[in-house]
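Figure 2 data, in text form.
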Amino acid sequence: MGEAIAKKKAKIQSKGIMQLCPDVILLFYDAYGYGNIQDARKAFSNIKGHKWTHSIYWAASFSDRKNILYPDSPGRGGAFLYSKNNLWCPQT
């Protein structure tokens, strides 16, 4: 996760996005539903160097969860792992 954040930061900075839109929100998508939100938070808890972004959101696909809007697709779960907005992520 830390490596992915560092790579994304380099790409965003090289394209000048931070000057145009400094409140970047990163999204991590776990298409296979390997973990749950507690696993994601545990993995994220030791990562440094992420506060340059406004927020980081973790989303996962879960085949055992019903998707009301798209019944043929798996359900989704997710949460903010970090945010400068305390309403979105009060534990940061």
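Caption note: The beta strands are 25-30, 55-62, 75-83.
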